[in-house]
Amino acid sequence: MAQELVNPALGKDLLGLEELTREQIVAILDTAEAFKEISERPVRKVPYLRGQTVVNAFFENSTRTRVSFEFAEKRMGADTVSISTTGSSVAKGETLVDTARNLEAMRIDMVVIRHASSGSARFLAERIESHVINAGDGKHEHPTQGLLDLLTIRDHRQSLEGLKVCICGDVLHSRVARSNLHGLRRLGAEVAVCGPLTLMPPDVRELGVHYFPRIEAAIEWADVLNVLRLQLERMKGGFIPSLREYNRVFGVTRARVEAAPRDLLILHPGPMNRGVEIDSDVADGPHSVILQQVTNGVAVRMAVLYLLAGGPVADAEVAA
Amino acid sequence: MPEEVLWYLRFLCVRMPFLPPRFVDTPPPRRIAFPRNPRPRTRAPPDMPDTQRRPIMDGSAVERTIAKMAAEVLRLAGGATELVLVGIHRRGVQLAARLADAIERNGGVSVSSGSLDITLYRDDLMVVGPRPVVGQTRLPAGGIDGRIVCIVDDVLYTGRTVRAALDELADFGRPRRTLLAVLVDRGGRELPIQADVVGERVEVPEGGRVEVKVPEIDGELGVEVVEAA
């Protein structure tokens, strides 16, 4: 049977959206579209990755991403193991590469890694044979979150071409912001950032995005708001005067959303600080697609596993 | 730099926005370029260079065959009330739609239909190179429990696609009976699977290929045999 083939050449690993082309991102999103239905079936499992072993190495706290990856792996039929910093040899001082090589000696096929250091996923991918999927490395990238945001926006707005998306809040500490930015720009969206200057990366203007110092101006401009979490654990003080002041000046509140000239779409990568960067009224309101993002997360991760897994792919080498 | 000094600089940044935050920011992740690990790679087989196309059915012949198949499917299922036609991606879906039309014209009753993508149930994950595009799987809202499901595909060859379809259907429910209808049976089975309803049987030598064309994908209706010259 003649079958249409896709060769997005994701290569061996998924480390970030910065390295991906428009075609590769579209291929992942289209595949994810088809996979949404699997989670609605009476038996939510397909045998595609039967007999494959995936290790979820989460060296940083996470609920959503870890569970989402585990569901995706299990629904694709893979066997999974989860390890975390506490309760593993990492607590005894074993290095990342040693841990990974030891796991690999037990014959594994993929590693999903979350780590507090930027670049750790690439570091690992260059040293082990298994496929590596980045589930967030420090302040660098969180590609699957970026992809699920793109998928959610695409579900609600037919095309991303020319769409105005504003990333609000703690851009400095946010790997989600970086992945979103690269993904959105590849698909032709216009991107802006909004937040206090202390929470902006130094090269923000060099990235070629608009910068809004006031949330009101950002809401007036944007079609889509991606509200980031204020990463309180990464700033022990000094970045903002107080949480209450942040909410008063930069919080996405009901009054501000209702004053928007367009039908806004509001995303949040979670976990939310209710009453800080986003108010409960907005988070649970009609414009919010926050829970749909979580649903789409499983489909996107299944698509990534599908496209990375299996036999060798011709021309898999990605130009570095 | 001691922590106290950093804190003071951060404080300055908050109070004096003209001071760029560059002073207190950590540098961006450094790209390390190490050689990648060597991995064995194979290439997808190239397309056959010299091929010869021989049409065996034109549009009207396919229409006539589908009308005959519709009557046969109706006879085996004992009516259209419990029948569900399920087309296998990609061309089986269009053939199932045509079959449903023929049944409607024939008996004046509508028949529920669905589509099935068997990619995730294939048994050659480790062999295929580029991944196939995964299509939508849609089954009737009422489910398939206790119904008579007729799997529709364009060509029956090794039987592996049908094996995968049977496995996938089992995950959706338990049909009372499962039938298989194919437009072309070309022999060469690798599994003990036979069709209940066959439109046309053709002999194709090893290495040859049967191509079914449907208007929705290929722009015309017909069947061709492609052989190495």
Write the layout of secondary structure elements.
The complex is a heterodimer of chains A (320) and B (229).
Chain A: E1 5-6, H1 22-35, E2 53-58, H2 64-75, E3 79-84, H3 96-105, E4 110-115, H4 120-125, E5 131-137, H5 143-156, E6 164-168, H6 175-186, E7 190-194, E8 210-212, H7 215-221, E9 224-227, H8 243-250, H9 254-258, E10 265-267, H10 280-283, H11 290-308
Parallel strand pairs in A: 2-3, 2-4, 4-5, 6-7, 6-9, 7-8, 9-10
Chain B: H1 3-15, E1 51-57, H2 59-77, E2 83-88, H3 91-107, E3 112-116, E4 131-132, E5 148-156, H4 160-170, E6 177-185, E7 197-201, E8 209-213, H5 215-218, E9 222-228
What does this structure look like?
The complex is a heterodimer of chains A (320) and B (229). Chain A has 320 residues and is an alpha/beta fold. Chain A has two domains: 22-141 and 296-308, Rossmann fold (3-Layer(aba) Sandwich), CATH 3.40.50; 143-294, Rossmann fold (3-Layer(aba) Sandwich). Chain A contains eleven helices and ten strands. In chain A, helix 6 links the parallel strand 6 (164-168) and strand 7. In chain A, helix 1 packs across helix 5 and helix 5 (143-156) crosses helix 6 (175-186). Chain B has 229 residues and is of the alpha/beta class. Chain B has a single domain (51-228), classed as Rossmann fold, CATH 3.40.50.2020. Chain B is built from five helices and nine strands; from the N terminus they run αβαβαβββαβββαβ. Chain B has helices at 3-15, 59-77, 91-107, 160-170, 215-218, and strands at 51-57, 83-88, 112-116, 131-132, 148-156, 177-185, 197-201, 209-213, 222-228. A five-stranded parallel β-sheet of chain B has the order 3-2-5-6-7. In chain B, helix 2 packs across helix 3. The chains are: A alpha/beta (320), B alpha/beta (229). The interface between A and B is large, with 60 and 63 residues.
